[in-house]
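Sample pair:
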Amino acid sequence: MKYFFEKGLIFVFLSLFCLSANSQQKDIELKGRVIDSFDNTIPYAAITIPEKYIGTLSNDEGKFLLLISTENLNDTIEISSLGYKTYKIATKDYLSKDTETIILEEQITELSAVTVLNDIEYVERSLKYLKQNTVSNRHQLNLLYRRASVEDNESRFFVEHYLKVIDKGPSGSLRKIEVNEGRKSADYRIVKMKQHQHAINFMLDHNPLRGGLRIEDYKWSRVGDSYYDGEDVLIFEGRSDKKTLRLYIGMDTYKIYKIENSQSNAVFVYKKNKEGKLYLSYHNREFKTRKVPDESLKKTLKYANKPIPEHFKLAYRHEIFVLGIEEDKKKFDVKNYGGFGKDMGDVDISYNEEFWQTFPVPPDTEFYLKIKSELESHYGVPLKTQFQYVNKD
């Protein structure tokens, strides 16, 4: 049974694997690792076939996996990342390479003082042109959403959903949500903190572009320069009493390629579609809170031989990938059956083991590996085994 959600909250879109809506039959795996000339890994590098609108991103270790069809063998792959020159290679040539390593050459940026506006003007213009620079018409996104419930700094429950949404980008709202597939780990939680709706709806709270960034709340300064896909990029830092924001803004186009938000330890990485407009391709964050132990919690902790703290630490760790984007409204296939005010861990969806065995899961990130390791440490049960036994009907 599938569950669907419709919320008027705004959603931030992202993508690690950007798979073409028309390329349903994938039979070739392109694997590799992106590094610089000093053998340093390059995370979040975009690996794309622009003319076919197919692509992915590298993980924390620079590793990537891109699924293509035989129709793409005559296409050209482009690898780009902030601070480096774009690397191009024919698909056939890449498959015949002796090594799967790709070395990107650093782009030395020399900016003219005459062409650079003052700090606040760049931030203002990036917001002024936000709708123009992003995918802002209604579009469908296919997503992999991961969330771990963390107690006392350890992951104790994990939920993973494959879902589809209808979105309008940062200038609009999240229209529909359909959860197609899901799986859960064993539940080792003590407090069992829950959210009152699907976690994807809380993206608005943590992306300043979707919530309406108040420039005047921050003191802005330029802290660095970079380069991305043919454009010089300026890095601006905004500081307030409560948080720090970093925006990576294109010097000529005012496109925002990346956001770092200290308040929730969040990162937002954007990439271009075939028209050069941006959508969020990858995101992770850790929302932290705490609870004063009541008598019930004290008894539970005492029974588990755990010390009773003044405040019991709680958190959610989120990681999201966009696996595909469809901009042709005639091809949208997200159904709408109303909104369910449920925590994503309470969504009762049948576990389809065959789906997850064939699903093109992105290469593991450090963010995910930490969650996986902590979940397996409780009783020494592999996460894969937990999926098999916990999700049985």
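Residues 366-377 form the longest helix (12 residues).
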